[in-house]
Amino acid sequence: MTRTLPEEATVRPAPVRPSRWSRLRRSLRSNWQLYLLAAPALIFFLIFNYVPMYGAQIAFKDFIASQGIWGSDWTGFKHFERFFDSFYFWRLLRNTLVLSVYQVILFPLPIILALALNEVKNVFFKRFAQTLTYAPHFVSLVVVVGMLFAFLDPRTGLVNHVIGFVGLGPIQFMQDPDWFRHLYVWSGVWQTLGWSTIIYLAALAGVNPELHQAAEVDGANRLQRIRHVNIPAIMPTVMVLFILDFGSFMSVGFEKVLLMNNSLNSSTSDVIQTFVYETGLLQGQYSYAAAVGLFDSVINIILLVGVNQLARRYSENSLW
Asked: Can you list the GO cellular component terms from the UniProt entry (predicted)?
């Protein structure tokens, strides 16, 4: 009696997964035109954004220009401790945080304007409103601050003339510390509000019209369609821009603060960026200024990573 033995199963070796470098070479060969287009931008960022990081080490040294970076002596965290123990630390940190939080609170304004413009049916009025709100973006920052000084001058300013007509005395807007933050933030809103709506209007243009038609069939009014159709559609864009804004949370606009700063309002206008400028460029304390600037950058990185992690945990939108 013969026994039929089962055929031995053929064992096939698992496919070898290509290495990362081989996948990169294959991608370079197949998409070399795209990499060629991206190369100038990558080279620009490499040279002007990453190579200068080499000089950040002077924050841990007593930098002397004649000795160079490598010839200067290491001091560890001496300059950081000096900054943390200084009289200016808490004032600079408080002023920077207050201005940053003030601007974050007003983050929804471009979204509200974009939602409103998207609902305008009159083409002429819509274009006129867009032009009116976009125009301030192209006004120089120096001109904007000059306009503030001109309109708010206690003797010749238009605003104080109007205040005088109602029987009130002139107000020292540009010299009063209590007015600095409001003038700084709201003049920035006036200058950037319209331009910031462009991205949101582009996102709203991509909303499927069938969603609005279905909502109308279900009896939704205009506000309900905005709430349940438009806002969810642009939420990924909102989250990405919000996270990017937090990446520069501690980086208050240096040039504008410097232009508006004076000895009378310095109690609220002194921020970390102006302190770095005055300490480094005006006083020549390069290592100390580098330490303060590095502290500011590290805080920004921590906030960026933290906000991105929160966004990824509680929503489906994040930078990475």
From this structure: plasma membrane
